[in-house]
From TrEMBL:
GO molecular-function terms, A-Z: metal ion binding; metalloaminopeptidase activity
Superkingdom: Bacteria
Matches recorded under Gene3D superfamilies: Creatinase/methionine aminopeptidase superfamily, Creatinase/prolidase N-terminal domain
Cellular compartments per GO CC: cytoplasm
Matches recorded under PANTHER family: XAA-PRO AMINOPEPTIDASE 1
Protein name: Aminopeptidase P family protein
Secretion signal span: none
Stored SUPFAM superfamilies: Creatinase/aminopeptidase, Creatinase/prolidase N-terminal domain
Similarity comment: Belongs to the peptidase M24B family.
Domain Peptidase M24 C-terminal: from-to ranges: 537-596
Pfam families noted in UniProt: Creatinase_N, Creatinase_N_2, Peptidase_M24, Peptidase_M24_C
Residues in Creatinase N-terminal domain copies: 6-137
């Protein structure tokens, strides 16, 4: 079945369900960023392989909505003859429906795949045309997706307290204290990483993210109902959960929402789907629209989690350094492709003996593909790595003690002066973030411009955020903190930055049709002692160790402080990774980390 056939089949199914349109988001029942194969409805319908997007289908037209990270990718993967390309945040699904939905039409949506806020927005937009938003009982995409994968049956596993830094009972006690403060009887945890963190469990139900498909409801006394497929729990997990966690079948969750009549139940408006709030309200509960209490607690890493990440960064950085040497020595010979390079990097990480998974699909992009910030390499798009190109590798590992995410760029042969100029401007922005000092409570949106100024000065920019939060053996993209423009979709850029949060530092530059550049390290927010300061100040400690390619750096563009930072960073890379390297790898590292200027 071609993608055109799938679109036609969906329209036929909508007609059978008496619908004039339908919205297909890329998420699951937990509002996850990365989803299991069973929930990849957008990709199945359109061919789009990115990690964020939505589609809207009407009888006479269809549109796919993506942000600036996927401007090039969506055009390569989705047929413009059948789909209009709509940019986000310049427009939205709701706004598009408000313009294009038929008068008096019935537009379907799956209440398990949208938030209540989205439902209100779309309903208001449709009302302007006399159209209505209709919750479907069965998803019409599922009705025509005959070989749809089943949800994962991977087992749940215990995350040892020695790695978590706090027991599940301690974490649930903190949630209980929060519930008392909010005068709430219980809170629904629907985000998979929140459940994993609160219960000190992990899973294998979502590629690259060690979580299990489940829901949890935590009561004000700390006891918890965990809704999960019972066959996913072995005796070790049940013993770990203890009597205070009541295990119920995941299929019982929707019905359980009706059992809170007269109770005050907290549900996160950004993370709980509309079906949850609708189910609670239908059962007579008072829904409190409050942020999941795990979100901030999880974002502020405890000392054990920080120590674990440091250990993971060392082994991961050594694996990446060995790979970069391989790129330099082998890719100029010809015969290597984006997929073969990604496979080689995986070999180096697997050689650590501790890799659980990659933390996302490796972005292995050469030449023009590098200009798509979230390029996804497939067998169809796999390109040869050739002399004269820039090769961008954005990758990470999942280890029991930490989650990594790092991007480096290597020239295949000699880079052009323009490539060196652009790379150095990106590096200057990277250093500006790495060395930033700011008052406690500063928001990520307030420092995002630090990374962009060197590019702006040359009339350049990049169309993605500068930094995202990172989990502790959890989601590689973790909120609520972010470094991004204040109007960045989702509003996370206006979250106050706090000591203990981990973020990425990843400015970039992308020249359509030619190359892409991104330099990414992970950083930890820590207090800064400044003599004479009258406010509490914060700064960043760089956690990622791997050489930044010196042949791409134009030293004359760096200020003396910037050059000092670069040389100090490389000295630290050598100090940290040197003991991990041997033979030719050690000599290569020594040369790459030699002082510049």
């Amino acid at each position: 079945m071609t993608y055109a056939d799938r679109l036609a089949a969906l329209r036929d199914q909508l007609s059978r369900q008496r619908l004039d349109g339908f919205v297909v988001p890329l998420t699951d029942e937990h509002m996850s960023e990365y989803v299991g194969g069973y929930a990849q409805r957008l990709g199945w319908l359109t061919g789009f392989q990115g990690s964020a997007g939505s589609a809207a289908v009407l009888a006479d037209r269809a549109a796919i909505f993506t942000d600036g990270r996927y401007t090039l990718q969506v055009r390569e993967q989705v047929d413009g003859a059948h789909w209009a390309y709509e940019p986000v945040p310049q427009t939205s699904v709701a706004a598009w429906l408000g313009t294009h939905a038929p008068e008096g039409g019935r537009i379907g949506y799956d209440p398990w795949l949208h938030t209540a806020a989205w439902v209100a927005e779309a309903s208001a937009a449709l009302a302007e045309r006399g159209a209505t938003l209709v919750a479907v009982e069965s998803n019409p995409v599922d009705a025509i997706w005959h070989d749809r994968p089943a949800p994962s049956d991977a087992m749940m596993a215990v995350q040892d307290d020695a790695l978590a830094g706090a027991s599940s009972s301690e974490k649930r006690a903190r949630i209980a204290d929060w519930l008392v403060e909010q005068r709430a009887d219980a809170v629904v945890l629907s985000a998979l990483d929140s459940i994993a963190w609160a219960l000190n469990v992990r899973g294998g139900d979502v590629a690259h993210t060690p979580v299990a498909l489940a829901y949890a409801i935590v009561d004000a006394d700390g006891t918890t109902d965990l809704f999960v497929a019972p066959e996913k729990l072995d005796d070790a997990v049940r013993q770990h959960l203890g009597n205070a966690v009541r295990v119920q079948d995941r299929q019982a969750f929707a019905g359980a929402l009706a059992g809170y009549a007269g109770k005050r139940i907290a549900a996160d408006p950004e993370r709980a789907v509309a079906a949850i709030t609708q189910g609670l309200e239908a059962g007579g509960a008072k829904v409190l629209a409050l942020r999941d209490p795990v979100v901030l607690a999880k974002a502020i890493k405890n000392p054990v989690e920080v120590a674990g990440h440091r250990a993971a960064s060392v082994r991961d950085g050594a694996a990446l350094a060995r790979f970069l040497r391989w790129v330099e020595t082998e890719c100029t010979k010809g015969g290597q492709t984006e997929l073969s390079a990604a496979a080689k990097l995986l070999e180096f990480r697997e050689a650590t003996g501790l890799l659980k998974d990659t933390s996302f699909d490796t972005i292995s992009a050469t030449g023009a593909h590098g200009a798509s910030p979230h390029y996804h390499c497939t067998e169809e798009s796999d390109a040869a790595i050739e002399v004269g190109q820039l090769f961008l590798i954005d990758s990470g590992g999942q280890y029991a003690d930490g989650t990594t995410d790092v991007t480096r760029v290597m020239p295949i042969g000699d880079p052009t002066p323009e490539m060196r100029d652009r790379f150095t401007r990106v590096l200057k922005g990277h250093i500006a973030i790495a060395t930033a000092v700011f008052p406690d409570g500063t928001m990520g949106g307030q420092i995002d411009a630090f990374a962009r100024r060197p590019l702006w000065e040359a009339g350049l920019d990049f169309a993605h955020g500068t930094g995202h939060g990172v989990g502790a053996y959890l989601s590689v993209h973790e909120g609520p903190q972010r470094i991004a423009a204040p109007n960045y979709p989702g509003g996370a850029a206006m979250e106050p930055l706090r000591a203990g949060m981990m973020l990425s530092n990843e400015p970039g530059y992308y020249k359509a049709g030619e190359y892409g550049i991104r330099i990414e390290n992970l950083v930890l927010i820590e207090p800064r002692d400044i003599a004479g300061a009258d406010r509490a100040m914060l700064g960043f400690e760089t956690l990622t160790f791997c050489p930044i390619e010196r042949s791409l750096i134009e030293p004359t563009l760096l200020t003396a402080p910037e050059l000092a930072w670069l040389n100090a960073y490389h000295a630290q890379v050598l100090d940290v990774l040197g003991p991990e390297m041997e033979g030719d790898d050690a000599a290569w590292l020594q040369a790459k980390c030699a002082p510049i200027g």
